[in-house]
Amino acid sequence: MPRIKITVAYIGTRYVGWQIQPPRVEHPQPTIQGEIEKILTAVTGTLIRVHGSGRTDSGVHADAQVAHFDLSEKWARVNWQKIFTTKLPHDIAVTSVETVDDEFHSRFSAKAKSYTYTLWLKNQYVLPTRYPFVWKTGPLDIAAMEAAASYLLGEHDFATYQNAGTEITNTVRTITRFSHNCPEYSQREQLPDELVWTVEASGFLKQMVRNLMGTIVACGRHKIAPESVPDILAAKDRTAAPATAPACGLSMHKVFY
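-> structure tokens emitted (257 positions)
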């Protein structure tokens, strides 16, 4: 059966994440995976399972989530780009559709991923058009944030930055970039009151980016010192780090294969 790879962009505000909810949920809420599978099933008359590269949480956005699914030869010849464009809700878009070899897997073939996280540095207001996509923090000490981020680069055990609710036991990951205002990662012109951080790594744990941003912002607010970050990492205890950053500022930016 042909394997189809799709790239998906979405605003996650009204969804409870990428992953479909289990059948035991009495009143399931909408998910990105569920909306895509609904269309595939309606067109083909068969349940088609869509596999994503990662499970973005409730309220998290994506510029380029990657997913794949398998179809029969008959349905693989259909113009899926047109179907998705016509039938998907306005806040989900399939931006590319291609046939790939059977060995490709959206999750297991990925070499690295990157996320962006947007902060709003103005105290008085947030522009309404940016409200769903930023964390309003007010002014921050950016130099302190940069110093904190430097301690998180490289290979570490990030158990401190993994939230509960996962079966993953290997919590070692490698962060290759943790910086702000990266032009190559900008999807649009950045506003003066925005600060966009980019995190690129070999992989991420559950809510790891949001937890990292909680620490970075705490440093920017002078609630903790950047020099405390190595001890927070070494603790391997979620309670050792500041609170999780809100979902609204986070967007899956790119998956590398």
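Residues 32-44 form the longest helix (13 residues).
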